[in-house]
């Protein structure tokens, strides 16, 4: 049969000939042209070449080579050549040529690789003023006033905390680098051969894959772009450049009819007849399968090589669902929708070289055949190694096979091995309908035989791929590894030498790999991709001929990338040398992966380090080493061919779109990405760094081109830099020359005359934005290249020529201030300073001066400006760095200091005088003007500190060694000069320091002037200078050392040297501190007489200034470390007066004077709350001291007790613990010392006797629940605490007596105290505790009667009494609130509280004595309760008789309210009894109910008869006088009893219902679980291994001789085989039983039942086997799981 795809329209194939590059533009003469002409060529019109003819394709195993350029290139080509092709990795060049793909033709007037050019340069990404700031610096606006505010001044003021102070808060400056270095991607290693797609034109479309908006790309540019960069006209920063294979696409896609005109070409007819594309494979050739069963094969010249297939195969096998290309590109394997697989040789495409037809389930079940079932789709195909006839395949039912398609005696011999999957259930398969032959490509109608009922885990293969052979050898190549990915696992299978599973992995149940949610067991989609072994970096290439001779090329380890859900995982195959002798020479090591933003739909390798990831919205480029995304390109999945192959295997509740497959439409080859879309086939290449820069070389984005090139030079890493070397030096060698040429070309473009005249710069704002942005961009580029001179030699010259140098200066100033640009030519620095001077921005000019290198400063201009405007920072910088004069700044500043000193000295005499009354210069200066210069005058100390330490002022940059020595020599010689000097030295004016004109100059005038101005600041500068090694070394020209400096300071500041008392005591104190602190630091350089040291020490101690106490004490400690005074007692006395407690503690601890040591802790205000810890330490140290010392120490502490209790919030508690631990015999004395406050005494004793309740006294005290009461408190103090407790907290007396271990409850003195304090409840409690229950109740009756009479008396006579509330000092009010009564209450309330307390104790006695082991024998329980209730009834009746309950606020009658319309309030009758308060009434009303509640809840009816008790109470009431009879109380008693009974009954009923309901639910659950039964997990008995189901499984099984012996030996734990004899079996058959083991012989009466036992875990036994096993093992009886 003729080939149905022969196309008569295909021209005859001429001989191969060189083809012009698709990059070629129109021929242009380049001999004589300026820059504008070149730029016009870049932005001008280009025409594409016509489509050439193609020759016959004969594949030779290699790809196309890069053609040479035939014609002279235009400017665009020159720019491309400028950027070069060095970004492409060097590859082996093939020996033959082929035709490359054509570039898409574009209409004239367009630039093929960019969108329309913007109208003006305003759209440049660097055109906004805010983008010129140097990275890492704050944005500096155009306003110079904002520049002034953004950079603070640098005046140096008097140090608030100097080095002479005891505590220095000077913080070290920390410098953190804000620069980061990112390594580039390593140079990729590729397989041999160069693809023709490497020539994808730079003029190809750089738009998004499906023409999406530019903003949809998420590739991050190296620097932030301005808003103009996102406007239309800026090329999108995509990762790929895409080219449509137009000729190839036109042959496989039917053209769209336009205007109603039908298509008539033969190619269009051919495209329609063969069907639409379904799958694609690319490897040396492009193979495209169609929906009608054909496969079209194209070469890389887009020529149709052949069409594989026949009419019969197309009709019988269905659509093509899988395509694979062999390793040598000569065979194509094709899988169809109905299960057939065909292998075609490209030389004979019309007839399959091998075929694997589908089989049926019946043949599989009979064991006659293996393979895919008829109707199942072949989803994945792959060739094993270099063989043509070894393939692997998988289908949509989860079956995967290895096919060895050989021949035996010229006949086909196919060996098939099933690698994964199970065949469907025969029963369900037999009822399934046959598959349809419909060629629909969506997969919905392409169903084969229905698979078996879906299990919990879907059975399908999401992806499969064999490990391809790479250009380098690896040990894994010999195993023919195949990776299979299912929804539940990844399996790597090795086919050689024997099939086995090498490695497996499962998805994590975290919701990332299993999108069904956390806990889901499978994933709905998954993909994988292999990277083969390639030659290692640095390995010498081996020629093909040497490979054939057996040469081995060392290769890298292959890798497998796979993904479930959103997580990508990596596995590396390493060579296992240790296990190689065992046949295991490959080790699988899983590396760290990453999680993508969206679902992973495809994985393809670019090289061994970079991988492409297809997601629903993007094509991402990832670096597997850093696991970071380095590129992203937007895509639209709706335009890519997809297949719904897997949705039927999953839950139908999820949309089928979640399971679409895109793997067959997403292919890579030779670093090119192929996409099969619904309208065409596209090839994409990563946009290289040179391509990206070239795309930005246009008016709107010139600055962006410079910026991105600069970022690449500095190490920026993205997808475009993959081809750049990783080594920074090598990268710089490639990129830096390109950046320099781009800078030059951009400069020529911006300042070209044509651009300035053609109207593009007509907008002033656009012009200024472009020129401003160019400066910042070029500065950053020049800093990256290290060529700052270009800025001023070329760039500044262009700005100056065009009269816009002010823009340049304004935009470069931030870089100057940041220190990035400091070498400004003198003309530039002059102009920059002059601009600020003209604007009056003198502070800005000052900052410019000291940020510019000194050799580039115009000294005359700077000096005049600084002296006129008093810019001392810049003035010092010019003197020291430009003129190398280090004395001149001192002369300038000392003159200012002298003026201030003269003004301050005369200021008191001028109060009230006229301004013109003084004749000298100082009189004409106002006080405000003089004092305003003080901050400038203090700069002299900052200058001294930095200059004497070898630093430059004000930048603090280190000076060179020679210059630092020169500066120190000059400053020391001038500052410590003994007489007045002149400037200049010969014939100059003397430098005066005296306050009066014409007066004599004192010795050492300049040092004296600074010390008089601020001694502390001067000495602080010298203290810093003392640490320099300059004063140690023997340096020529040095006139001073530390000894000489100290001597001069002592001489100048001595009283004899300053008779006018120019120095204050604080000045001399700082001198003493300076000397005392430096003497022990430099003992080898400084030596003073003992009398001088003694004078210094005395001076430190005699100063009464409290602000310097710590400083003087620290200095004294330094001095004492190297000097010991002779008169120690006098010095100690001075230290005591000075408050040098640290020194005193050291002395006293050494002399073991413990009392004095404790006194220092008690007097030191800095100790604070730590005083208790120090006192404990002191008391521990004094344990071995003499008794006298101990008494002195105790007396010292006791004297301080009043202050100790106020040391902190827990001071009283800490004091009690301290005394109780170390001074327990002094408790009485402590209490006596606290006699001024009864509250303190009470709190102190509570901390000792009831520490668990001491927290109630203070809410901030430490928890004390774990402290036990003290046992060291004597009885008098305990009784005193009891008395205080009766006064302050009488309700807690019983608690204390009950817990007291000293037996106070039996002490008559304690009871007397309670009785005197009227704490009757404690008395009653104590009597009952002694066993006198009857006497206690008698006392209750008596007390209740007395208290009732007292209450009635107070109510009848309206006696108003005030409660006596003890008033303490203000500091005790907080403690008082913790235990005292918080408000004054009426006398009736206090009496009722006593009655309630007595009643409470009486109720407790009745409860305890009426039943239980403590029942009293003197009285019955009924008598006890009768007496108590009678007393309570009498009390309540008596009170209610004269004081009824007060009305509630809502029940008050109208007589107690304001009458309507009246102006008076009606009052009660004054003769009526005073009613009780609400509190008192509630207390009285609760007496009887409380007693009844205790009676009912604690006493049973056997102990007390409630009816008898009520009857006795009523009879007792009847015997009382008629006037006193009242039954209201009894009504309450009966009602309370009945309510109690009703409540208890309701409670019991509710409890019964709840428990019954719970019991019913549990019983019901147990019943249901019991009736469920257990599911069997197998078919054989666990003991005898025989089947339990079927005809042979009824009852006990027939057992063979060997099986029974094995069972018995296993059961008995025997080591040898026993002798056997014949015995009847359980069912009449013979069974071998061991001889002599009668225990195993079946007994007639215990014949095992016939049944089956099922365990909870699903195991099965014959009932007889289980009984036998249990009896042998001594197990417990079992429960039958089922019969």
Automatic annotation (TrEMBL):
InterPro entries: TPR_VPS8_2, Vps41/Vps8, Vps8_central_dom, WD40/YVTN_repeat-like_dom_sf, WD40_repeat_dom_sf. This is Golgi CORVET complex core vacuolar protein 8-domain-containing protein. It comes from Leucosporidium creatinivorum. Residues 1-237 are annotated as: Disordered. Residues 45-54 have a biased composition (Acidic residues). Pfam families: Beta-prop_VPS8, TPR_Vps8, TPR_VPS8_2. Residues 143-154 have a biased composition (Low complexity). Residues 163-183, 218-228 have a biased composition (Polar residues). Belongs to the VPS8 family. Residues 63-74 have a biased composition (Basic and acidic residues). PANTHER family: VACUOLAR PROTEIN SORTING VPS41 (PTHR12616), VACUOLAR PROTEIN SORTING-ASSOCIATED PROTEIN 8 HOMOLOG (PTHR12616:SF8). Residues 1389-1567 form the VPS8-like TPR-like repeats domain. Gene3D superfamilies: YVTN repeat-like/Quinoprotein amine dehydrogenase. Residues 807-1026 form the Vacuolar protein sorting-associated protein 8 central domain. GO terms for biological process: endosomal vesicle fusion; protein targeting to vacuole. SUPFAM superfamilies: Putative isomerase YbhE, WD40 repeat-like. GO terms for cellular component: HOPS complex; late endosome.
